């Protein structure tokens, strides 16, 4: 049933959603060395194992796909293929996110990197019944100066596909205060703001992401359930949670699906949406992600409609796109 329904994906990383065959083909075309050129071997190296112990271990799975995402042609191809994969399961709108700084190993400028990804997305939109926008991420492992560079590089693409800024990567306590100035700059330029927080560290980071960084949406936010002040503030401000249950179980942000706070948030009228996080690394698509959570909590079409409309309201698309998305449900 869910495969046929229209879907919206608000939290999906480009480098975590690369086809295995594409990694092999690009590596051969660009003479890039891989540990193996066999799909089965790459599968075991890129997809997260069942015994993954942490977010830090999970993030190591991105090293290999990023190795082949260093040319304009590969970035364009991978962005196109992500939208193609999404369209095949009736995703009607996706916000792709990626960190441009990770793709400079062969000398591309930040502008060339962003433009290549947008070209792939826009090409897919011409062929498939899907719309998209791009969120550019600043890695929390990088300097504040690099964050400023990313924000400045993306400015020329605002209203041309780029809609928002994010902070992503390994999460340490208190990161928000470090990046306040570049995120303030982004907001002043017209970027919308979504922040990874409360995934690998405490709910205090969610509180800071809202108060210090002006986050409108929170990526994951699992630990919000343990911090009353953050929970109450998020509810009062109608902050939207981009929840990715499979990824959260894999990174041990939560022990199992039954303990995931998604349904309790939903029942308490918190604004929740469901996404994949990383389609290849987590070995999941949005249909199966929804199936897992709906089976776990015995949810039905009425609940699905509410979550879908949450995503429509929360997305960073223009009003015409939102009207179109609403008309589909």
UniProtKB/TrEMBL annotation:
Q: Which residues bind Zn(2+)?
A: 11, 13, 196, 277
Annotated ranges, domain Adenosine deaminase: 6-328
- Please write the reaction equations for the catalytic activity of this protein: 2'-deoxyadenosine + H2O + H(+) = 2'-deoxyinosine + NH4(+); adenosine + H2O + H(+) = inosine + NH4(+)
A Gene Ontology BP annotation from the UniProt entry: adenosine catabolic process
**Cofactor details (free text):** Binds 1 zinc ion per subunit.
- So where's the catalytic machinery, residue-wise? 199
The feature of type site (Important for catalytic activity) is located at 220
Q: Name one GO cellular component term.
A: cytosol
Cofactor(s) annotated in UniProt = Zn(2+)
What does the record give as the function of this protein?
Catalyzes the hydrolytic deamination of adenosine and 2-deoxyadenosine.
Q: Which family does it belong to?
A: Belongs to the metallo-dependent hydrolases superfamily. Adenosine and AMP deaminases family. Adenosine deaminase subfamily.
Q: What name does this protein carry?
A: Adenosine deaminase
**Source organism per UniProt:** Romboutsia weinsteinii
């Amino acid at each position: 049933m869910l495969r046929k329904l229209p879907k919206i994906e608000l939290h999906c990383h480009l480098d975590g959603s690369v086809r295995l065959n594409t990694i092999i083909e690009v590596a051969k075309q660009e003479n890039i060395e891989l540990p193996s050129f066999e799909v089965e071997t790459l599968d075991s190296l890129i997809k997260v194992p069942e015994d993954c112990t942490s977010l830090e271990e999970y993030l190591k799975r991105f090293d290999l796909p990023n190795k082949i995402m260093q040319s304009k042609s590969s970035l364009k191809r991978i962005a196109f293929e992500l939208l193609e994969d999404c369209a095949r399961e009736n995703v009607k709108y996706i916000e792709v996110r990626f960190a441009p700084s990770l793709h400079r190993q062969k000398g591309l400028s930040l502008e060339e990197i962003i433009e290549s990804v947008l070209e792939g997305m826009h090409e897919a939109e011409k062929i498939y019944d899907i719309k998209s926008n791009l969120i550019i991420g600043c890695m929390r492992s990088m300097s504040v100066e690099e964050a400023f560079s990313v924000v400045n590089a993306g400015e020329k693409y605002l209203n041309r596909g780029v809609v928002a800024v994010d902070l992503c990567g390994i999460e340490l306590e208190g990161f928000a205060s470090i990046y306040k100035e570049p995120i303030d700059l982004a907001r002043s330029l017209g970027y919308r703001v979504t922040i990874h927080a409360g995934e690998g560290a405490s709910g205090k980071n969610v509180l800071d992401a809202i108060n210090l960084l002006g986050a409108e949406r929170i990526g994951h936010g699992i630990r919000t359930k343990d911090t009353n002040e953050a929970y109450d503030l998020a509810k009062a401000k109608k902050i939207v949670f981009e929840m990715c249950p499979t990824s959260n179980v894999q990174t041990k942000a939560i022990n199992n699906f039954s303990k995931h706070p998604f349904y309790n948030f939903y029942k308490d009228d918190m604004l929740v949406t469901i996404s994949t996080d990383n389609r290849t690394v987590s070995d999941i698509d949005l249909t199966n992600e929804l199936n897992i959570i709906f089976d776990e909590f015995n949810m039905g079409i009425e609940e699905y409609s509410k979550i879908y409309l949450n995503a429509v309201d929360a997305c960073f698309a223009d009003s015409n796109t939102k009207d179109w998305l609403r008309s589909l449900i």
